[in-house]
Amino acid sequence: MRDAIQWVRSLIFIVLMYAAMAVMGPIYFIPTLFNKDVAYTAVDHYTRLVRWLARWVVGLRSEIRGTVPTDEVLICSKHQSFFDIILIVSAVPRPKFIMKKQLKWAPILGYYAKAIGCVPVDRGKRGAAVKQMLSDVATGRSRPGQLIIFPQGTRVAAGAKMPYKVGAAALYTGSGQTAVPAATNVGVFWPRHGIMRKPGLAVVEFLDPIAPGLDVSTFTSRLEQMVEENSNRLMREAGFDPDQADTST
């Protein structure tokens, strides 16, 4: 019975979350046409509202730990569900993402993603996308801010193992920017698929920065160790053993 009630609450939360997007998107649309910086205000207000709804509708509290990056850096984050995106965007001042190309056609979401400088990537042409991105940074066409990339390339179930792809290292070495690893446990409460949202404390933690200058192999190894070890620590803190996880969710 308790699970059934939580499922209903989760469904209500999801409806409210997308209803808020449908309402807030048009409200900020016209101001954003005249001043693209308004888009940052729009996504900040939306992500904070989603965090508030998650707390009060399904009992999912959220917390940002570590030093929030405010300079022009690469944020290399574990990605377990939509909620880690929500938390990071609510924390940093000028977020922009490397995102799936298909998302640029998504109503409302695609418009605001473009407005804040997100970079659409064709999964079959990641190498070309990275080169274009580096060129945009070098020539000033890319809007300054915190570029968020998911080194594993996709959402990963809590406790699942997946290799780190070369994209994050290519951006790190090619841009000469500092990388800020980020760990999370959000997948324990908000899985990749399905409706159920569980109560608890979801955390995104910004870790110690990795200064420029490492080669691809050394950087990737250090990044993976930092993100995986700390994500496992956060999951265990939430009462979830990543070594005994059912990774099918």
Could you explain the architecture of this structure?
With 249 residues, the protein is an alpha/beta fold. It has a single domain, classed as Glycerol-3-phosphate (1)-acyltransferase, CATH 3.40.1130.10. 47% of the residues lie in helices and 14% in strands. It contains seven helices and seven strands; from the N terminus they run H-H-E-E-H-E-H-E-H-E-H-E-E-H. It has helices at 2-34, 38-58, 82-91, 109-115, 126-139, 167-175, 216-237; strands at 60-65, 74-77, 95-100, 119-121, 146-149, 179-184, 200-206. Strands 1-7-6-2-5-3-4 form a seven-stranded mixed sheet, with helices on both faces. Helix 4 (109-115) links the parallel strand 3 and strand 4. The longest helix is centred in the first third of the chain and has 33 residues, at 2-34. The radius of gyration is 18 Å and the shape is globular. The two termini are 21 Å apart.
Present the secondary structure layout.
Blueprint: H1 2-34, H2 38-58, E1 60-65, E2 74-77, H3 82-91, E3 95-100, H4 109-115, E4 119-121, H5 126-139, E5 146-149, H6 167-175, E6 179-184, E7 200-206, H7 216-237
Parallel strand pairs: 1-7, 2-5, 2-6, 3-4, 3-5
Antiparallel strand pairs: 6-7
Helix pairs in contact: 1-2, 2-3, 5-6, 6-7
